[in-house]
Design goal:
This protein is α+β, with helices and mostly antiparallel strands. 60% of the residues lie in helices and 12% in strands. Strands 1-2-3 form a 3-stranded antiparallel β-sheet.
Length: 150
C-alpha cells in the first residue's frame, strides 16, 4: 500500500513540474511522442461542459474519493492506494482548472490525444481498480497472490 502511495506522489510531483515547464516554454510539436502545450477547457476526452459545471462535478468526485479513501485506509484495504492515486491525479487537474481555466496537457500522441501524467495516473488507477472489482469483487486477495502485492 505504501508503494502505491509513494508512486502516486512521484507521478503527481512530476506532473506538476512538467506543467510548470510546459507553461513557461509553451513548446508546440506535431511529432508523435513529443512534449507540447495544450490547454483542455473541457472535461475528460474534451467533453464540452461549462467551467462551473466541470468544477462542481470534479469537486464532488474528489470529495467522494476522499471519503472513500479514508474509509479504505481505516480498514487497511490495499485499494486505498489506488484511490489515493485517483485523488491526487484529480486534485492536480483541479488545480489546473482553478489556475488556468483548463487542464494543462503536454504528452502529445499525434492525432490520438494530448494528455498529462495526472491523466495517466487516473486512467491506470481507475482501470486497475475496476479490473480488480470485476474479477475479484469484495473478496480479499489470497495470501501471496499478485493482487495482494499491489
Amino acid at each position: 500500500m505504501a508503494s502505491l502511495h509513494a508512486l502516486a506522489i512521484f507521478f503527481v510531483l512530476a506532473d506538476r513540474w512538467l506543467k510548470v515547464w510546459v507553461l513557461a516554454t509553451k513548446p508546440i510539436s506535431a511529432k508523435l511522442l513529443a512534449l507540447t502545450y495544450s490547454l483542455n477547457p473541457g472535461l475528460a476526452f474534451s467533453l464540452p461542459l461549462g467551467q462551473p459545471l466541470i468544477l462542481l462535478i470534479v469537486g464532488l468526485i474528489i470529495i467522494w474519493l476522499g471519503r472513500y479513501y479514508f474509509k479504505l485506509r481505516r480498514a487497511h484495504d490495499w485499494r486505498s492506494g489506488l484511490i489515493f492515486a485517483l485523488l491526487l491525479g484529480s486534485l492536480s487537474n483541479l488545480v489546473d482548472r482553478l489556475l488556468y481555466g483548463g487542464v494543462v496537457d503536454y504528452l502529445n500522441f499525434g492525432s490520438l490525444t494530448v494528455f498529462n501524467l495526472a491523466d495517466a495516473l487516473i486512467v491506470f488507477s481507475l482501470g486497475l481498480w475496476l479490473v480488480r472489482e470485476i474479477f475479484y469483487g469484495n473478496r480479499p486477495p489470497a495470501a501471496g497472490s499478485a493482487q495482494n502485492k499491489l
